[in-house]
Design a protein that fits this description.
The structure holds two protein chains of two kinds. By secondary structure, chain A is mainly alpha-helical. In chain A, 65% of the residues lie in helices and 3% in strands. In chain A, the strands form three sheets. In chain A, strands 1-2 form a two-stranded antiparallel sheet. In chain A, strands 3-4 form a two-stranded antiparallel ribbon. Chain A has a two-stranded antiparallel sheet with strand order 5-6. In chain A, helix 3 runs antiparallel to helix 18 and helix 15 runs antiparallel to helix 18. The longest helix of chain A is centred in the C-terminal third of the chain and has 32 residues. In chain A, 60% of the residues are buried. Chain B has one helix and no strands. Classes of the chains: A mainly alpha, B mainly alpha. The interface between A and B is large, with 63 and 44 residues.
């Protein structure tokens, strides 16, 4: 079969599977975050941890709970890595303690849902660290992102109140009722598809040519599912989803892409259900689908269009460098687009080897700021902020009343939206500028010129947007990049959430405004088109100089 | 122990012999005294850095709440 046709069939299958899950999963998520009833196991957790599930928190209190939980998570995971040699190592290979800078960067990375990895999992982490440290954070960091989105939605559904729910209850519901059950199902599917899952020790074998090769075992299927579904991206292997033990065949590849997109694409339905207007959800999911399809189409085109590559690309017919032959460029392109628009960061091909324009699109996807469909939860609150900006711009342009879902968009809300949107560019461009402008930052750049600039931009954009995929070719294991990268991940994750929940708190205090003749209908194709336009203009204007000097300059050379 | 697959590019993974443990349950080499001090200082630095960044975020929340009032 023609590989381009196979690629588009794959996209068609994905859309069909995601469409089938949109309503049931979206409705289910709305139900678990609106119910007052708790399961027995949840009541046990609340009792054990001293949580009063009847208490409603203000946005500030909700945020402080989240920050405290995340700070403890970072310190716990750091300690676990630093002491892993002395902790129980009853199964699997024995490993030394992780060096301090790598341990801190990794702890921050997994707690912020970034999963940027400056280490090879198979030669650095014990099974215990992988399972009870990193994989636990894969669940919890995903749940944290999700509950912030739910709190943001409550800003629209609640009126004349300063409260947005209970962080601890939401976190427990998200983990117990959603992530764990789906992970069990998904893990079984992956294991049935051939993903390795055992507690085997590593074996060194002699190959037919007489060389020695280490065959790695481990609990991979159980971690792979939450790695993808939680939009985490940090796998047990350095090669991530390009490794045959994590992603052995085209079926598992397609299933992993499905997992990346499953919850983010269902969240607009949850939003529609919670605000009691499903058409609002359809409008948001349409925006996400348009941007995702554009990213898939763009990367697929440039990876298959040999004129943009060199002699090897022309000879191979596709840009095959850094691509797994099991998946080909269509499998790589759909995965690369999906992992960068969802803030996942898992990879099944080498992004540094994408064609200049293909890599430029991946960078642009990340720079979009987790909105199409974005990271788990992060995509939802990100697109809601951008919808608010669009309503405001529309109000200025055509004289409509700036309202969204029955709430007025006043100067206070716009200040929050502006601060939300400005945070990431400030963090990314400051860190990239410091790295390019200082000797200590420059010393880790191995590719000079436009490609080197793209690598630095990609690294900090990936970390700040909590994506975690790497362009590689940059010595990010240097202490400078470990420390600055860690700070960038923390600020990129939590500072926008502060402004998003501040905005939600401000909306929740308002009285609802009935729709009038002057209200812009935010359920129409016109509004969908406007939001897409606002997103492209805002991101384009912010990052155009960096994109022009990096991937565009390289591609046009 | 060698990784089955390593990321290309110098410096992308960094393991010194001090941190490396051979397979087969062998104990880690005993670090030298000055190295132990360096590691302890590094641990303190990273724990302190975590506290400082989260404290800054905490203050940002307080600041925004104050601005609201």
């Amino acid at each position: 079969m023609n590989s381009a046709l196979a690629g588009w069939l794959q996209v068609g299958l994905l859309i069909a599977a995601l469409a089938a899950c949109y309503i049931p999963l979206g409705n289910y998520m709305a139900k678990i975050f609106t119910t007052d009833k708790h399961w027995k196991i949840e009541r046990g957790i609340f009792k054990l941890t001293g949580i009063d599930p009847t208490v409603d928190q203000t946005w500030g209190s909700y945020l402080r709970s989240m920050l405290a939980f995340s700070a403890v998570s970072v310190l716990f995971l750091y300690g676990m890595q630093r002491l892993q040699h002395y902790l129980l190592q009853f199964v699997g290979p024995h490993m030394a303690n992780v060096p301090p800078d790598t341990a801190w960067n990794t702890a921050v990375s997994f707690t912020t849902n970034t999963n940027w990895q400056n280490y090879s999992g198979e030669s650095t982490m014990t099974y215990l660290t992988q399972m009870s440290g990193l994989a636990v954070q894969n669940f919890l960091s995903a749940a944290v992102g999700l509950v912030v989105a739910i709190a943001m939605i409550r800003g629209f559904t609640r009126s004349r109140t300063g409260t947005l729910g209970n962080f601890w209850v939401d976190l427990t519901h998200a983990t117990v009722r959603l992530l764990i059950p789906l992970s069990i199902i998904g893990g079984l599917v992956l294991a049935a598809g051939g993903v390795v899952d055992n507690f085997s020790a590593y074996h060194t074998v002699t190959t037919l040519s007489g060389a020695h090769q280490t065959i790695v075992g481990g609990p991979f299927a159980s971690q792979e599912v939450i790695k993808d579904m939680g939009n985490n991206g940090g796998g047990p292997f350095n090669a991530n989803s390009a490794h045959p033990f994590e992603n052995p065949n085209p079926f598992t590849n397609l299933f992993e892409i499905f997992l990346l997109l499953l919850i983010p694409f269902a969240l607009p339905r949850t939003f529609g259900k919670m605000v009691k207007d499903n058409r609002q959800g359809y409008a948001l999911v349409a925006i996400m689908v348009i941007i995702w399809l554009a990213a898939v189409g763009g990367i697929s085109f440039f990876e298959a269009h040999t004129a943009t590559g060199g002699a090897a690309t022309v000879a191979a017919g596709h840009a095959m460098e850094g691509v797994e032959t099991r998946f080909g460029t269509p499998g790589c392109s759909v995965f690369a687009a999906s992992t960068t628009v969802t803030s996942t960061g898992a990879v099944n091909c080498f992004h540094d080897s994408l064609t200049p324009f293909g890599g430029g699109i991946a960078l642009f996807d990340i720079a979009l700021g987790e909105i199409a469909p974005g990271g788990i939860g992060a995509g939802m609150y990100g697109i809601l902020v951008l919808a608010i900006v669009t309503v405001f711009v529309a109000g200025l342009m055509v004289g409509r009343t700036p309202e969204y879902i029955g709430k007025k968009i006043r100067p206070t809300e716009m200040k929050y939206a502006a601060l939300y949107f400005l945070t990431l560019p400030v963090v990314i461009l400051t860190a990239a500028g410091l790295s390019i402008g200082t000797k200590i930052g420059q010393s880790a750049i191995f590719n000079p010129g436009p490609h080197g600039l793209t690598e630095i931009m990609y690294a900090f954009a990936s970390q700040a947007n909590n994506n975690g995929s790497a362009f590689a070719g940059l010595g990010t294991a240097a202490t400078w990049y470990q420390v600055v990268g860690g700070i960038v991940m923390l600020l990129g994750r939590f500072a926008p959430e502060i402004f998003a929940l501040g905005l939600a708190g401000s909306l929740a205090r308002q009285s609802p405004v009935p729709a009038s003749a002057g209200t812009l209908d935010t359920r129409t194709p016109l509004f969908v088109g406007m939001v897409v336009g606002v997103i492209l203009i805002l991101v384009g204007l912010t990052y155009f100089p960096a994109l022009a000097l990096g991937p565009f300059a390289e591609g046009l050379h | 122990m060698d990784a089955a697959w390593t990321r290309s590019g110098p410096g992308s993974t960094r393991f010194t012999e001090i941190y490396r443990v051979p397979s087969g349950c062998a104990p880690a080499p005993e670090p030298k005294e000055d190295l132990v001090f360096d590691l302890f200082a590094s641990d303190l630095f990273y724990i302190g850095l975590t506290i400082v960044v989260f404290a800054a975020l905490w203050l940002l929340v307080k600041g925004v709440e104050r601005f609201e009032r």
